[in-house]
Design a protein that fits this description.
The protein has 157 residues and is α/β, with parallel strands linked by helices. 37% of the residues lie in helices and 22% in strands. It has 6 helices and 8 strands. It has a 4-stranded parallel sheet with strand order 1-2-5-8, with no helix packed on it. The chain has a 4-stranded mixed sheet with strand order 6-3-4-7, covered by helices on one side.
């Protein structure tokens, strides 16, 4: 299982220890952390790209049902697009927007500054995030593959 929850969503829903040390599933994040990020980069990429289950969130959902996920590296996008066998998204209702343009604006003007601030806190000054890759899902080809849980509280950004 892999997660693409933001750190604030992740810690709000469960402690890192609960997920990373669970015995009823194998965390891709935990598996990847044991691998060398230089010499075993390809193995890490494969783990992240096709987990059995992806638990995560999204950045915006439009009234038409378009789901938007932005990423600096793109590491979580392949699992969301088609790699994961099952996708479970837990989404705060503050991420509901009117149109695709509203969703893109939300990502640029709200999510990106907050993610850049988080990146600076974690990795140090001079570091920032970017919208290098953007996934828009209009529909799912495989019935039942994606489950979305809307939560009436602010989760993540």
């Amino acid at each position: 299982m892999t997660t693409n929850l933001s750190h604030s969503e992740f810690t709000h829903l469960a402690s890192e220890k609960q997920i990373e040390h669970a015995n009823h599933f194998q965390s891709v994040r935990a598996q990847g952390s044991t691998l060398d990020h230089v010499t075993q980069r390809n193995e890490i990429r494969k783990l992240i790209a096709a987990p059995d289950v992806l638990v995560g969130s999204v950045h915006a959902i439009t009234e038409q049902g378009e789901v938007l996920i932005a990423s600096a590296s793109g590491s979580q996008l392949s699992a969301a697009a088609c790699g994961a066998g099952l996708v479970i998204w837990v989404v705060g209702t503050q991420k509901l927007v009117g149109t695709l343009e509203d969703g893109l604006r939300r990502i640029r003007e709200y999510c990106l500054p907050l993610e850049s601030e988080r990146v600076q806190q974690v990795y140090g000054q001079g570091q920032a995030s970017a919208i290098n890759k953007l996934l828009t899902i209009n529909a799912e080809h495989e019935p039942g593959r994606i489950t979305m849980v809307l939560v009436k509280q602010q989760l993540g950004f």
